[in-house]
Design goal:
Blueprint lengths: L6 E7 H4 L12 H8 L22 H15 L3 E5 L2 H4 L9 H16 L3 E7 L5 H4 L9 H16 L5 E6 L1 H9 L11 H27 L8 E6 L4 E3 L5 H23 L5 H9 L8 H9 L4 E5 L4 E5 L14 E2 L5 E4 L6 E2 L5 E2 L3 H13 L4 E5 L16 H19 L4 E7 L18 E3 L8 E3 L1 H11 L9 H13 L7
Helix pairs in contact: 3-5, 5-7, 7-9, 8-9, 9-12, 13-14, 15-16
Length: 498
């Protein structure tokens, strides 16, 4: 495996940024259906869940050339792009949509011409409706449907990049979409959860099989690598030396780390999961044949979405004994709880914990579990209510958040973790599944009330430009200098950047 230069990147996702949902031959996915059926807009300024239309979103479908210029000005080295299966196969698993391939080909080519390496993620929660009608990820046939999709992606797009991912955040998708109705397909069914999770893992193994074939056919470079991306939140025992809380953290890790990484890196499932299937009398068996196939087709590296750690206690802990920032969360296994203590913990305005301290130890734990594979941070960022009323968008809290986390990534690299890149969430403001268009994440502001979805740089854009230009050596936050930098960027932000 070749030595890779460290990449400073940004990440985004088709259904959150792209728009053009009924254009270019595309049909509906489960997210189109879900947002239409569950449309809700909370009052302005409330940190509540907004489920809004994704028909246009940030209109990346039409504006990717503008966005490529903005990324080039930033010096961005990579763009992690969670792709849209439905745009390429809108009817079934056999008929490729030429317009869908051509759009991706032109978008990837435009990025490369602007110095930005596309880093595709093949699947992120967005099952085509034609597949969902036939059972979606509960139907084992989806593994072969997915095979057709990845074959087309490698054949037509493989020339543009040597870094690929299969799935992104299988845990959130499986838990929120199959054990809950928070996200589509909103199944709320334990058997559906088990089937969907296993078939997600099988699609990754099939993708690895096709990845190796694509290398032999010359569609991909011999150095190309294929990864799986997981959103593990490292646990902190609520009571540091309490043996029950320490044990609860161990069990939590089996359910929230190993369950979503072991199958595609080791070809195994944690025993707690297999025991739970039996205890719940779930009529589904993971065959030895499938396990052999998983073991024979492991992923090459790990993507990690690090936003925050979590506080875990034993299930019998009485949370009324401490002051909480927000209510305790319980899970389908009654062996631990997740708490949000108020004292000594920082939170965003969206009540997400701010704490970079578990990034190094978490990375070393992943290395210990899965060996000296390459690692890449694929998502890390802060959702906020940005003040866009002034000429300069001064998102200093985001800059401070990013600074503290990039610092820890570089420390982990020095400690021997083979980090090949850092990709922040996200390039520009988007539709957020948890906050709609009111939850700002981007380095670049999008005016969602503008007919052209006008782009404007934020302070974080100027700061990340400084980080990239210095190859990660200058993480300083000099407000006077950054103000000058941002003013210079804004003054040169002509109509080609809007």
């Amino acid at each position: 495996m070749k030595n890779r230069n460290f990449i400073f990147s940004a990440s985004t996702n088709a259904f959150q940024i792209e728009g053009g949902r009924n254009l270019g031959g595309r049909s509906d996915s489960i997210w189109d259906e879900f947002t239409k059926r569950n449309f809700v807009i909370p009052p302005t300024g409330v940190a509540g869940r907004e489920i809004n239309s994704i028909d246009v979103a940030a209109d990346f479908y039409h504006k990717y050339k503008t966005d490529a210029r903005i990324m080039n000005k930033l010096g961005l080295q990579g763009l992690v792009y969670n792709m849209d299966w439905t745009r390429i196969f809108p009817k079934n698993a056999t008929e490729i949509n030429p317009e869908g391939i051509k759009w991706h080909d032109d978008m990837f080519k435009t990025m490369v011409e602007n110095g930005v390496q596309p880093i595709p993620i093949l699947y992120h929660w967005d099952t085509p409706m034609w597949a969902q009608i036939q059972g979606g990820f509960e139907n084992p046939e989806i593994v072969e449907w997915f095979r057709s999709y990845v074959q087309a992606c490698f054949k037509y797009l493989g020339k543009y990049t040597d870094i690929w991912f299969v799935n992104d955040e299988n845990s959130t998708f499986a838990l929120s979409g199959y054990l809950s109705d928070y996200m589509p397909p909103a199944r709320k069914d334990k058997t559906a959860f088990v089937k969907a999770l296993h078939h997600l893992n099988m699609t990754a193994a099939v993708t690895k099989e096709e990845f190796l074939k694509a290398k032999k056919l010359g569609y991909l470079s011999q150095d190309a690598i294929l990864g799986i991306d997981h959103d593990w939140n490292p646990p902190i025992p609520l009571r540091q030396d309490n043996k029950d809380d320490l044990k609860a953290c161990e069990v939590y890790n089996q359910w929230f780390k190993n369950l979503y990484l072991d199958p595609n890196l080791k070809g195994t499932y944690p025993q707690v999961f297999l025991d739970w299937i039996k205890a719940e009398k779930i009529a589904f068996e993971i065959s030895d044949q499938d396990l052999k196939f998983l073991k024979a087709n492991p992923m090459d590296f790990i993507g990690w979405n690090y936003y925050r750690p979590c506080y875990i206690s034993a299930y019998n802990f009485d949370e009324k004994t401490i002051e909480l920032q927000k209510p305790t969360e319980e899970f389908f296994v009654k062996e631990f709880k997740q708490l949000y203590p108020k004292a000594g913990v920082k939170y965003t305005d969206w009540n997400w914990i701010i704490d970079a301290s578990k990034l190094v130890s978490g990375a070393l734990e992943l290395k210990n579990d899965y060996g000296d594979l390459p690692f890449m941070i694929i998502e890390n960022g802060m959702g906020d209510f940005d003040d866009k009323s002034q000429e300069l968008i001064w998102d200093k809290k985001r800059v401070e958040f990013l600074q503290s986390h990039i610092c820890e990534v570089l420390k982990a690299k020095e400690a021997g973790v083979n980090f090949i890149g850092y990709s922040l969430w996200t390039y520009c403001d988007i539709f957020s599944p948890s906050g709609g268009y009111r939850k700002d994440y981007g380095l670049v502001s999008v005016d969602f009330n503008s007919p052209i979805k006008e782009r404007r740089p934020k302070l974080s854009y100027a700061w990340y430009k400084q980080v990239i230009e210095s190859k990660g050596k200058d993480l300083s936050i000099n407000e006077a200098k950054l103000k000058q930098d941002l003013e210079a960027i804004v003054s040169s932000w002509d109509l080609y950047y809007k």
